[in-house]
Amino acid sequence: MKKNLLFVMCLCFPILSGCWDRVELPDLAIITAAAIDRLDNGETRISVQLFIPRAITSGETGENPSLAPTFVREGTGDNLANAISKLQINVPRRLFWGQCKIFIFGHELAKQGIRDEVDFLARHPRPREKSLLFVSAGEAKEALTLVPPLERYSGEALRKLTQDEYGTITTLRDVDMALMGESESVSMPYIKKLGVQEKTRKSYQTIPVIEGTAVFKKDKMVGMLNMRETRGLLWLKDKVKRSTISIKLKGEDGEITMTPTLGRISYTPKIIENRWIMNLNMEIEGDIVQNETHVNLLNEAVMMKVKKEYESALKERVAETTKTLQHELKTDVMDFGRRFHQKYPKEWKKVWHRWDEKFPEVEVKISVNAKVRRPGYIGPPAALPRDEVRE
């Protein structure tokens, strides 16, 4: 019995040996954001934003870059893997990627192609697949050196801007899946440095902001959508939750502004006598948040006019975005190809190899149904004399 017990204990010793390969927190360099650039000599540069633990625990602010809770280190190499190995030489602690939620590609790198960089990030066990991807105007490194007046570091400011849905949201997994999909296209938020208005602040005391959307065909950036077109793309992706739409009624000087509270879009592909048609059916509900006109919004006839104008405005905005994507950029980030493939697999096999040519020929038909849920507790504009209200 004793021999058996001794034998069992010997077997348990290797299991109870503890975390022999663990790395203590004081030995880690925590990365919060990373920027990847292509240099003039063809090399790749990786810049990372690293936490300074003592700055965080002492409560120091980012008004002075020397007191900021982060600092930037970089490494260069023939490819991203080599650049990261060079980066490790410049950091005394082991790099920890588990908290890196932001990756920014420089403009030049995006134009030349990001496939190799995405391949490394997707294969590397540390970066999270839900990390957010951006494209920067100019060099991506600059976004990491900015010192936001409100947030602790620029990576955090970017993350919160994305949460507020001012632009498209693209993760590492989204890019990996999209570039392998039928359309081989993807979009990413395009950012730039916000200009400093206050004379008391330095040029670096600002944040990166979303300027529009970078559109990729295969792995190369082929163009951009401005902010108006970006809002249309968000409608097409059914991701609009915070926005406003302003319309003007005929004969009125001011505008009526609505903010959507609910929006839905459905895609119905059709092939009729070799005509490829995509029907977009949109439904929107919203609240009136401002009335600059003299009309009474509690009047049913007036509300019918407002409803039609909203439907027309949204249809125009979405049509503008689809026109740009089809005829200027010729890039199917709306995933028309996947939808046709699912419904018409036989027909898709005949055109998939020349989808770049077929995509601009797809007829897009848009229908919008708008519903105003709350015109406000007052019908006429606030503080407007009663005799000036038009029913």
Key attributes of the depicted protein:
single chain; alpha/beta; GMP Synthetase, Chain A, domain 3; 2 domains; nine-stranded mixed β-sheet; 13 strands
Can you put this structure into words, describing what you see?
By secondary structure, the chain is of the alpha/beta class. It has 2 domains: 21-225, no CATH class; 226-391, GMP Synthetase, Chain A, domain 3. It is built from 13 helices and 13 strands. Strands 1, 2, 3, 4, 5, 6, 7, 8 and 9 form a 9-stranded mixed sheet that branches. Strand 8 (208-217) and strand 9 form a beta hairpin. It starts with a helix and ends in a 17-residue tail after the last strand.
What distance lies between the first and last C-alpha atoms, to the nearest angstrom?
98 Å
> Rounded to an integer, what's the Rg over CA atoms?
27 Å
- The SSE order reads HEEHEHEEHHEHHHEEEHEEEHHHHE
Number of domains: 2
Q: How are the elements arranged and paired?
A:
Elements: H1 2-15, E1 28-38, E2 44-51, H2 53-57, E3 70-77, H3 80-89, E4 94-96, E5 102-106, H4 107-112, H5 115-123, E6 132-136, H6 141-145, H7 154-163, H8 172-179, E7 185-193, E8 208-217, E9 220-225, H9 227-236, E10 245-247, E11 256-272, E12 275-291, H10 300-328, H11 336-343, H12 345-351, H13 355-358, E13 363-374
Parallel strand pairs: 1-4, 1-5, 5-6, 6-7, 12-13
Antiparallel strand pairs: 1-2, 2-3, 7-8, 8-9, 10-11, 11-12
Helix pairs in contact: 5-8, 9-10, 11-12
